[in-house]
Amino acid sequence: MWIEIMRVAWRSVRANKMRSFLTMLGIIIGVMAVVLSSAIGLSAKAGVTKQVENLGTNVLTVMPGSASSGGISRGFGSASTLTTSDATAIAEQDPDVQYVAPLVSSDQQVVYGTNNTNTAIEGTNAEYPDIKNLTMAEGRFFLESEVNSAANVAVLGSQVEETLFSGERVNPVGQTIDIGGIPFTVVGVAASQGTSGFSNQDDAIAIPITTAMNLFTGSDTVNQILVSAKSQDVMDQAQLEVESTLRVQHQLSAATADDFQISNQATILNTLSGVDRILTLLLDGISAISLLVGGIGIMNIMLVSVTERTREIGIRKAIGAKRSVISMQFLLESLMLSVSGAIVGLILSSIGTEIVSKLTQDGNLLSPVAVGASMGFSVAIGLIFGVYPARKAANLKPIDALRFE
Amino acid sequence: MTEYDSGARASRDLIVIENLVREYQVGGQTIRALDGVTLTIQHGEFVAIMGPSGSGKSTMMNMIGCLDTPTAGRYCLDGFDVAHLSEDDLAMLRNQKIGFVFQSFNLLPRTTALENVELPMMYLGVPSKIRKQRALEALQRVGLAERVYNRPNELSGGQQQRVAIARALVNNPVLILADEPTGALDSRTTEDILNLFEELHAQGNTIVLVTHEDEVGRHAKRIVRFRDGRVELDTGAQRKVGVPKHVD
């Protein structure tokens, strides 16, 4: 008998093709919203993970503290409180610190032959590639001796190299480029690193910090100091050591707050993924609402269907259909609407995620959790929103239903 | 599933109605559609229930068909007291004891004649093979062996009513209850359908036919005429031939 009831329900779904399709559309859109938003979440997560791997999780960034004028703080990084001697002190005194690289930066015009570009010139020391996990595409990074002698040598980011040497069939290593009107010898080209946070590391040129200070900044203050801990386990100790070293260096009394800020990459990325989580939550909320709206659409159509078929219900009851049989027939109809909607939605969204993952190369973005959840949610919606119309049908009195025109 | 076998086959009485009252509330007013009806119908009778509109004959038909329950009084169908049955029990009672034939045929649209006839057996839980075989037999009995795969909209009125009669017969009910079965048919088809009822009666089926047309009522062997919710006339009220319990 159950097979017949299913056939009856299915026939009724098919009898009004357009109406059934429009009803399903709510669920189709809802399911697509769930699956695609989870794909966006997964893709963002993959991006964050990639950045963590790029930067290393054992890196501390020391930034100058906020300058205040007349009690008005101008925010971190606005003061020039960090110097190269701070970096030297950290390197010499702090046992849990492995590498220290001070950083000064200034934007300069760079020229090679007929090509030129404006890019960030990062002055740093020879430990920089160890902290940044920088690998070289060609040539080498500059040496400690070159830092000490303030040599005019430069290491190009991959994007800068592309810009300056496009169309030139020469090996950039050994070539001379002009930075801010001063000739530099290219000693290496870094492999592509991608973006980190908000800066594009491939669009930069690294030169010895001594050279940068002599030629471009003219002071011994630095913009930031990168510090790497010996391992990820001693991050907290390293951070405390750096803090106390700098407090001594800056002669801060116990009552004075730090005039610098130490942050580690993991914290920054955590913040980023926290934002990402909120975004995903928001998208999930919207998808849930659209599924709910789809469910209300199903209930609406089921109520119409019950009213339209009042007479049919009367006939069935008169010749012996029990309440449970009638209510099952309508419940199955609503389930069929929601489940077929979910299946169509899943097919469309798997095509969608396939395209997105091809484009972003983030691997498979069709999350089994999202598929399962949206399927389960659709079944639940079909049941919940089908119960009321089904009960209404089952409760019809046969004489009233038969008299219905 | 409750099986309603012939609990009271020993008795010749199929329908026993005693002081049946049915009241409706219409706009705060109580309307008494049936006002104390007493009626007995035996197995094998062909009874026409007649009367003008508003006489209570439709309410009577709903009562006999177990589609409605009485406000007061007693109704026993084939030994089952209707007042004590739940809605689902009533559904099963209708399924197994009564075959309905309606004025407007009441076939399911978009459903073949065969499936329409199979429906009562489906609700009884008859396996599909037996169902199909019995449905084909029933359609043959009403002379529609050729049209079993047609849908109602592909059949004439007379043919649709034959499908409905086949559906009414298929569970071998003890009662065929027809509500104005010829009301939507032309006079020639009416004659055909009434002849079919007479044939079924001749084969031993009990038929109760509700109508307001004297032409139609004439085919029945007994006429019960209603007026104002009461039995006004009963042509064939066969006296109960019970054995007196004791003689004074």
TrEMBL record, chain A:
Residues 286-398 form the ABC3 transporter permease C-terminal domain. It comes from the Bacteria. It is a multi-pass membrane protein. GO terms for cellular component: plasma membrane. InterPro entries: ABC3_permease_C, MacB_PCD, Macrolide_Exporter_MacB. GO terms for molecular function: transmembrane transporter activity. It is found in: Cell membrane. Its main location: membrane. The chain crosses the membrane at residues 21-42, 278-304, 325-349, 369-388. Residues 20-243 form the MacB-like periplasmic core domain. Keywords: Cell membrane, Membrane, Transmembrane, Transmembrane helix. Belongs to the ABC-4 integral membrane protein family. This is Putative ABC transport system permease protein. It comes from Alicyclobacillus hesperidum.
UniProtKB/TrEMBL annotation, chain B:
Residues 15-247 form the ABC transporter domain. InterPro entries: AAA+_ATPase, ABC_transporter-like_ATP-bd, ABC_transporter-like_CS, ABC_transpr_LolD-like, MacB-like_ATP-bd, P-loop_NTPase. It holds the Pfam family ABC_tran. GO terms for molecular function: ATP binding; ATP hydrolysis activity; transmembrane transporter activity. It comes from the Bacteria. Keywords: ATP-binding, Nucleotide-binding, Transport. One of its GO terms (cellular component) is membrane protein complex. This is Putative ABC transport system ATP-binding protein. It comes from Alicyclobacillus hesperidum. The lineage of its organism: Bacteria, Bacillati, Bacillota, Bacilli, Bacillales.
